[in-house]
Amino acid sequence: MMFAIDRPRISEFFVHCPSLCEKEGDEYKKILYYFPSHKAMNERLNSSGLCEAVMTFTKFFETTCHTLHTSTTRRFFHQMSDDLWIVMIVSLPPPQAKSVYEYSTCHGFDGNLSDQVMCAVLSTACQMFELFNGKVSSLWYAEGVDVLKRRLEHFFSRYLRSMLFEHYDMLECFNGIQFTSTEPADFSRIQGLVNRIRFSFRCIKHVVFFYDGRLAHSTLDLDYARHLYHYLNSFMFVERPELSHAETTCKTKHLGRFLVGPKDLSDSNQTTQCPILCSPGSLLPDSQLVTYQALRVVLCLVIHGVDPIPREFFVQFDTMVGPRLTVLADRLAANQSSSLVGGNVFPVQMLDSTITPSVISLSALNTSITQEEGVIPALEELIEGDVAPFSALGRSRFLYWNPCTYAVLTTLHVYTGSGRRQISGAKLLLDVMISLRSELQLRPSSWHEEITVRMDPHIWLVARRSNGREVYMIFMKKQENLAKLDADPTPEVRLDLSSAGPTVVILKNGRRICGHGCARSNAPIVQNKAYFEAKIQCAGRWAIGLGLIKVLVSLHAHAPLESLDQLSESSLSWVLRENGGVWHAGAMIAKLEQPTEEGDVIGLSYDHVELQFSVNGALVPLFAGQSLTLSNGITGLKGTLYPVVGVSDNSVLDVGFNSRNFYHSPPIPDFEQILFEKELL
Question: Could you tell me the superkingdom of the organism this chain comes from (predicted)?
Answer without folding.
Answer: Eukaryota
